[in-house]
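Quick one: structure for this chain?
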Amino acid sequence: MKIVLSGIFLGLLLMVVPLYIDYRFRLHLTQKLATSIGRLAFLVAVMALVVYGGVMIDSVVYDIAMGLLFCVFATWMTLYKARLKPTLLFLPLLGGNVVAVGVVSVYVLLLVMKTDNMLTASLFLSMMILLSGGVIMSNAKALDAFFSGLRNHGQLYYYLLGNGESHRQAISYFVRRSLRIAMVVEMRRLSYVVLFVSPVLFCGMVMAGADVLTAAAMQVLLAVMLMAASLLAVCFTLVVGRKNFFDEYNRLKVRDAKASDQPASDRPVSDSSASPSVPRGIDPENPQQEA
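Got it. Here's what it folds into:
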């Protein structure tokens, strides 16, 4: 299936509908609509140019370099969504994204799809772009939960240390809470994809020439790949980068972890362990509770 230039023009004419509704009912959203359309066009153009360049150049070095570049962009977007300073977790998160996205991409292309030459722009680079963009939101929520747990429930960490727990054991509660949130986000994505996204992608693949069984299998594989890559990236980041939240004496140092848009009401945890009790309303066995 090919879309000619006249077809693209006729398709874009459908934008008359939202523009007319905005004008008729005085919604005053024309500027925001134009910004959204411009952002969409820019991102699609960048991805199209990158993949097209990979197809034309046909270089393994180019494909790997562009895949790493998209991992860098995904890392920056994750920290931006989590409102964390890039200096805190950029390198650990970048390493987690590269390892998770690279491992899952190679596994799927080599063992699942059984491609003869996986290091091509149409396969390897496209898979890297797909996975690096798909793990942003769940990783951002997981890292935000980890930092918020240390900041808001830091006394629990000192309480566990004071009762004989090691640093590794005391921090495991916050790690479990972060991983739990990442998995919950991915489980919600499974049901969301089936109900809202899969019909669009499924029908799009069928319209592009794929058979029905292949299109259906790709929808299931896509959800599983995103869950695996997201959890791998979060695990790697927390294992490697959690030391950045502590000083050489294992004391919390999360005061300056948030970006400059941190609300004034957010109070950093105190380094004092004067209150050896678990904060009121917090059940260590139920990480879903919030203070």
